[in-house]
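Re-run requested by the PI after the first attempt was lost when the workstation crashed. Everything re-entered from the original request form. Ligand of interest: tryptophan.
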Amino acid sequence: MASNGGREHWGSKLGFVLAAAGSAVGLGNIWKFPYVTGSNGGAAFVLIYLLFVLILGLPIMIAELVIGRHTEKDPVGAFKLMAGRSPWTIVGYLGVLSGFFILSFYSVVGGWTIGYIVKSISGSVAALHDSDSAKSLFSAFTSDPLQMIFYNLLFIVSCMFIVIKGIKNGVERWNKILMPLLFIILFVLIGKGLTMEGGLSGLSFFLKPDFSKITAASIIAAMGQAFFSLSLGMGAMITYGSYLSPNEKILNSAFYIVILDTLVAILAGLAIFPAVFAMNMSPQEGAGLIFHIIPVVFGNMPYGSIFSVLFFILLFIAALTSGISLLEVITAYTIDELGWKRQRAVLVFGSIIFLLGIPSALSFGVLADAKLLGALTFFDFMDKLTTNYMLPIGGFCIAVFLGWKYGLDKTIHELDPDTKIISLKELWAFFIKFISPVLVLILFIMLLRSDFIGR
Ligand code: TRP
């Protein structure tokens, strides 16, 4: 297939894996995973999450990479090429739309990380010695409309800046250096958290499952989290796969990306929960969780302010490498399908995303009481809509399309030749045809019941 031979490719194998891992590893792992785990009862949620990563995430990750390399297109172009002018292209458009929606609230939290870099440098983080003062710092910050809009803008402009530079120079270069540093600082936090008095009860909250805490809503949240954290269900991995050169091994890369992403989430959990319990805080703090906890841990540590600056810089970079993958999907679509210049695409769509993000940016202050559907702030609404609905629907359609409509026979050669006793190719084919779509469907019915009938 793939006829456009001039397409830009990744500079190296490591470059691709790190860029794709850079897309996957982000706020979803370090900010969202701990707070969603905390709100859903801890270890039992984590186990279900891990199960979904394995039986939904991994097969769909492979499927997206296969579609991307097979077509060398953006998500819309890929479906057009494979399905002609049929309703299947809607899946591609849905993906591009999800990119808009996700980045619009993602950049709000990305903006928080920049704000906390500034606060760490200015010394206001070092001055925090207890969780109450950390909480009031956070709420004063997030309820200030001017700062929220300013930092949101700063984050989007940073993404735009890198995406304009293109794949190899922009997206690829950053990831290579920064990923290893992130690991080091997480280990420092884990070490500190575990040695705090009372830290071990946090460890058992995170690792010792209590299945009585599992509800339909938490199972759904685990599925959504798996899609979100692995950047699946909207064609981000189709787009990144489209820059993948023909001799790269997809199965191999997919394994690395999934393992790296999961590892960072687990490390983030290990870093946060011991500290939560040691400080007698509730794990159910919601979206502010890590901002209530981590600054205090640093505040009580020798050289804490240096670590704190470093931590928030790395968190910002992790968010940035994910943010650029979201913007890259939209950009690739306009370049490939509408023939726009890269620069124009980025400027136009970056601005639209910024405007769309304003209500989310104000959701912790002036718009905190403006509830949609009776319960959700604009920020939460965007998050739920994409994480629980759009991404799983996208992933479901990708699996059904590849497994049943387009046919695996035409694409399976994209996978590495099997060397093992069990055929990994066949295993994948079985999952993508039967297990993943059926599971998403069942969970989706549960979701509809809990969101609409249960109320
Ligand atoms: N996975 C990223 C994170 O964990 C967020 C992200 C980037 C994303 N690209 C995506 C989520 C595409 C869904 C789809 O922070």
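Saved to the shared folder this time. Residues 1-5 have pLDDT under 50 and may be disordered.
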